[in-house]
Amino acid sequence: MSRFAAFDSSGRKLRRPHSLALIPAVLMALATTVIAGMGLSAYIAYGQQDALRHEVKIVVEGRHDWNISQETVDAAADGPILAHRPFTLTVTDRYLTGDELLDGIVPDHDILLSTQLANLESDDHKIQQRFHGTAVRSDLVDGRDRKAYDETDIRFEIDNAFRDNLGLGHGPKSVVAAAQRAAVVLYDPPNTNPVFWISLIALAATATTVFLLMALRYNLRWEAKHRRLVAAQRKLARVVLDLEALEATYHAAPEAERPEGFRKSWLQLQKLSLDLARTESSLTERVYSRKTAFGAQTAQQLTEFEASARKLTNLSDALMGAGSVHARLTGTGTTLDRLSAPINEAMTRLLIRLEQAPGRMIANGDIEQLRAALGQLLDAAAGDSKNLQAVEQWEQAERQLVALLVKQKKKISRYPHGKVAAPAGAPEQYRELKTSLGMDASTAKDGYANAAYLDALVKSIVGGTLESDRMTTAKQRTESSYRPSGPRLAVMLTALLLVGMIPAGITAANLVDDPFSEREGTGRGAQLEIDDPRGELSDTEIIRYLDADFPVPTSMVIAVRDAEAYLDLRTDPPGSAYRSAEPLSLLKSLHRIKQEFPELLDPVTKELKNGKAIIPVFSTDEGTSIAPGLISPEVSTGRYTLGGTSNWEHGSIHESKYPDITIAGVVDDYAEGIQRNGFEEDTSISFGGLFWLLTLLFFFTVVNIVLTIRFLLTATGSLGRFGRGTAKLRAAKKKLERLLLGLDDSQINAVAVLGASGRGRADDAGQRLFERALAMALREERELDATPVNERLRREFSARVAHLEHLADVLSERDADVARRAQTLVSATRGAGGDPTAEVTLPGRR
Hints:
Elements (H helix, E strand, L loop, with lengths): L5 E2 L5 E2 L7 H28 L4 E7 L9 H8 L3 E3 L4 E5 L5 H6 L7 E4 L19 E3 L1 H4 L9 H16 L5 H14 L8 H48 L1 H10 L7 H28 L8 H31 L5 H24 L8 H18 L8 H23 L15 H9 L10 H16 L23 H27 L13 E6 L7 H6 L9 E9 H4 L2 E3 L7 E3 L1 H13 L16 E8 L5 E2 L28 E2 L2 H18 L10 H55 L1 H11 L6 H26 L3 H4 L2 H35 L17
Parallel strand pairs: 3-5, 5-6, 8-9, 9-12
Antiparallel strand pairs: 1-2, 3-4, 6-7, 10-11, 12-13, 13-14
């Protein structure tokens, strides 16, 4: 049967509650496994699909400007364009319909690229074909898993690649660039960003650990509460099983000889056992219910149930002992010994402390009176069970002892002393037993209370001189450790989440930031050739203003031309200080200037050969210069332009009176464009997604650290208790073994002082209690030594070891005191009658 098995009042089996945190813990554990598997499969799938196995077909239909034809495009491609999926890019000279452009209804084509550069302006809205741009068949973009580029992004990316390269002076290469861009944006690979997968796996794993620690803490708290309940139930069950024997003992005492306290204790025992039996089932159900297990009402009821169970046990033991006395059964002496033992322990400490006190704090005669009074009390405890006056004799001896203690308290309290520490309370059974015997249990007339207070008073004057005084007791943690309230916990968690946004934002910004550094350089590698009919430009002055370096020598021709002859300049609105250029005139001017350098062109495609770029500079009649961009021999790929006239569609121009600086800016832009060309920004994870992922990771990591530290502190505390408890158990065992081996010597020492005077009676009677306490301590030591490791980690084990250690110290102190006085007595008697004195070593003395 499970050690947590229990039944309610109807006989139904109760099942221990489990933390609800186990559900998200299991789910997060599964999620961690699934995410790790998805990340691994993504890499495997990416590796399998990374090979470009399909060729992109380009079909040119119609007549086009910019030297675009099927022949020139095929020549400009300079080899097959490979992609991860087969498709055809169709270049058309007509306008597109709205259905084609916006809805992807292109039944006869995959991608349809119109070379028209502006929408058809028409008042007749019934004309369907009036849009420029790129149309992508809908099924090519539907059903994508990651969707790094949505449908709109895809068509704009392809069309922008075409237009950006037109702005670089390209013709057929613009179509090739559009096909290359289509191959990239139509590829839908799984997310293989390692930062994303590692962060996601770490987040899931951390969340799993958090929920597991919460569930583990819940289970530990519940098991601690369950152990307390079971311990109290055992005490109740023991008393219930002994009720018949208690009743027989109670009725064995003649009714006329039953003191009022004895009768009240019996009635209290019956009522208390009945009340506990009634509340046991409801309390068990509350402990086994998840809703009420950790409620304040359950904690209060459990505490009350434990206190009542302890009281019931003490009351039962007291009634059993008192009943044997009142009924004159065998065991009267044992009962009174139990009553005398606490007083004997307190008095033993007091007498040892007084004998070790310096100066004349107390007279030897007063010490002997106290020892004699203690002897009378212990002698009364050994009374014959047939003696009807045993209790009265014991009470009389206690009154005499109390009177002497009160007298000495008045004398000793005159000495300077600090605050008197509260003495340890008497054992729980002591007061119950005294009440059941019909004795006065008030503090003023109690032997233990007066002896313990006087001992504490003497200790405050002379200090802790006994071994038992030096034993420190660690503060025990209680189950009611600090736990923030619901609103406070919500505020703390919210604050933690907000604080976590700071490092998450910084980290996410660094991870998704532009990987290219700011331009810093001296123009190294730039080789400028100036084609300026006016001869006003100097390459030295231009290079002086450059901020970038070229990794390899790069040649550029600066072609200076008349702006009014090449550009259609407009002032819009009229009277404005700024001018713009008609967009198409900007584009035509680039291609016109390119044709002016036939030696740099490919004879078929009319594209610039690799080696030199052309930077057109237009001089105006107002004495300003316009440098709109450059004509590049390379195709612009990726999401960054090479620095060409990317804004040609708007006709934007910048007029400057400092052509050197303006041209240097174009050269710098080209240097940066070369560096960025072909770079594909990782779109698998956005800043926002990474930011919240890292925020939650930070949040759960901090919570996990806090819970882990709290758990480790608890575990370390348990292991520390285990280590300290085991060490203390070994020390106590050695002390008890020494006492057991020297038991014969102890008996001889007690006999040595017996009969020498009236003071020996206390040692003779105390020897009986000493041997009984030693036997009990040895049994406790054997039981603790056999305790398994898992049980030693509990606080109960440490408390029992501390009590055993204290008992061993007290027994050692008593044994050493008796041995010392026996040695002194025997040494003194050897000099009687004129005999020469000699050193005498009694057994047990070293």
